[in-house]
# Entry
Amino acid sequence: MALSSPVPRLHGLSGAGALILALTLTLTLAACNRSGGDERPPQPGDVAVARVEGETVWASDVKREAVAQGLVGEGEPLDPASALFRRVLDEVVDQKLLAREAARRNLDDSPIAQRRLAAARERILGDMLVESVVDGAISDAAIQTLYEEQRRLARESEEIRARLILMRTRQDADAIRSLLAAGASFEALAIERSLDDQTRFNGGDLGYFTADVMPDAYAQALEGAAAGDTVGPFQTDRGWALLRVEDRRREEPPTLEQARPQIIRYLTYEEVRRLLERLRGRAQVETLLRGDPMQVPGAPEEPASAPPSQAAPAQPAAPATKGAQ
# Structure
């Protein structure tokens, strides 16, 4: 039984959905280096790992930078004794030195610098808001509830383990079938004769799979076959195949711990979506862009003063993309 995945429902988002997803990714990837000479750990258990002109660099600063670069996940540990930690620490130190030199040259006083600093501040504050909302909504109880719901909705399926011998012609495959009937080893014949390079060297073993992931010819041949049965030969797009069924079993669903990261991503997305929906619902937002973003560059634009009769008829707005129902 496969646990239904909520993640594919997030694909194909339109503009609002893409913005939500971008903000969700920002939540997990954005980095903000702390400044100031405060010697108090910014979070419990944090340790000082360097000082730059008297300013402390904490282990959490290095971890944030590693997460921002996608080198580790938000919930993954980063050992201060590792080579990766040392490399990212060097980058954090370099960044602090560059920022200090930029400030010494008064580069932070220019209008463009002020706008970029303001944008960084807005991003950080937005991340902190999202973190507080998500932290309050994602609990062990919420994760357990969604896991049980997905297990109820999941479709039970059966896994099959089989071995394959692939031959070029029906005559060759019939000869193999005769050898098997005479007591020859399926594994030995697969190693010696099979044309399938991906499986021949491990005795034709295909491992465990569900019938829906196999080509139709294989799925039809395996239908009703019990463990120990040999089926075929049957024609495939690569030749003539024989299969021996080794085992059939019910597919095991993922455990709660295996499904937890996926569930957390989905719950995070849902909380961010609802938050932005509320904020946009009570905010006055005016988009000043003109024209169709899908228009071919260089194509003539319709004059802004064109009479209504020349403009294309208005189309009803598409319904807003929703998350999983």
Summary: Residues 1-37, 303-325 have pLDDT under 50 and may be disordered.
